[in-house]
Design brief:
By secondary structure, this protein is α+β, with helices and mostly antiparallel strands. It has two domains: 183 residues, Bira Bifunctional Protein, Domain 2 (BirA Bifunctional Protein, domain 2, 2-Layer Sandwich), CATH 3.30.930; 45 residues. 22% of the residues lie in helices and 33% in strands. The protein has five helices and twelve strands. The strands form two sheets. A seven-stranded mixed sheet has the order 1-2-3-7-6-5-4, with helices on both faces. Helix 2 packs across helix 4 and helix 2 packs across helix 5.
Length: 243
């Protein structure tokens, strides 16, 4: 088990915000977990629904060594795969995949959201704060999110939160220590990694398109091949998956 500290807060607005202010000096691997998170954030400024005491809502301090700023997506890959590996062990009947850039899906439903916030100094990453929300024991979702699912809904049983958190913490740290091959593993784990699927292209006036995934570069850019056989490359927020 890791010796990195785990701090549990009864209530906090956002664990990422707390980590970057109150916990800015915490060591590599440290975690701050909220029993109740009142202002959890996701990609594109979305909020994160989590019933207090039923799910994992936490942030993890990562201090990568020797990762160039241009290759910072490796941190995102390590975090996403670290979570996916653990969930795949606990939910053996479901295909666990990564929806680019770093949501975790069980089948076609979202079981985990991840928000990575990097702090750079020159050409290197000083620290990365990984905000992670895993739907664990929540039985009913009341928000208008299109496709949430929890471990309980998939397995029919309760999962103890503290051991699950320790597994995820250890899994992420292990991948951070051995980053070679991460991009290949990440691409092989992608949701919708084969076949043609609908997207919205925001670089061309938010037009609908049908395409398949060709690759995700180590920079995090995704390349799609549209139905006219034209390859198109996008940064985060430039393309939306149509669910």
């Amino acid at each position: 088990m890791t010796t990195a500290p785990v701090i549990t807060l009864p209530t906090v607005g956002s664990t990422n915000t707390w980590m970057t202010t109150e916990g800015a000096d915490l060591p590599h691997g440290a975690v701050v977990r909220a029993v109740a998170q009142t202002a959890g954030r996701g990609q594109r400024g979305n909020s994160w629904e989590a019933e207090p005491g039923q799910n994992l809502t936490f942030s993890m301090m990562l201090r990568p060594e020797g990762i160039d700023a241009a290759a910072q997506f490796a941190v995102s890959e390590a975090v996403a795969l670290g979570v996916a590996d653990v969930l795949a062990r606990h939910i053996p009947g479901e295909e666990i995949t990564v929806k680019w850039p770093n949501d975790i899906y069980a089948g076609d439903r979202k079981i985990c959201g991840i928000l990575i916030e990097n702090t750079l100094a020159g050409r290197e990453i000083v620290r990365s704060v990984a905000g992670i929300g895993v739907n664990v024991n929540q039985r009913i979702f009341r928000s208008d999110a299109p496709n949430p699912v929890s471990m309980w809904q998939l397995t029919g049983g309760e999962t103890p939160l503290e051991p699950l958190l320790a597994e995820i913490q250890e899994s992420i740290l292990r991948l951070m220590e051995a980053p070679l091959g991460l991009n290949d593993r990440y691409c092989a784990t992608l949701w919708r990694r084969s076949g043609m699927h609908p997207y919205i292209d925001h670089t061309r006036g938010s037009i609908p398109m049908t395409a398949r995934i060709l690759s995700v570069a180590p920079t995090g850019h995704i390349t799609l091949l549209d139905d006219t056989s034209t390859p198109r490359t996008y940064a985060i927020k430039e393309i939306t998956f149509v669910i």
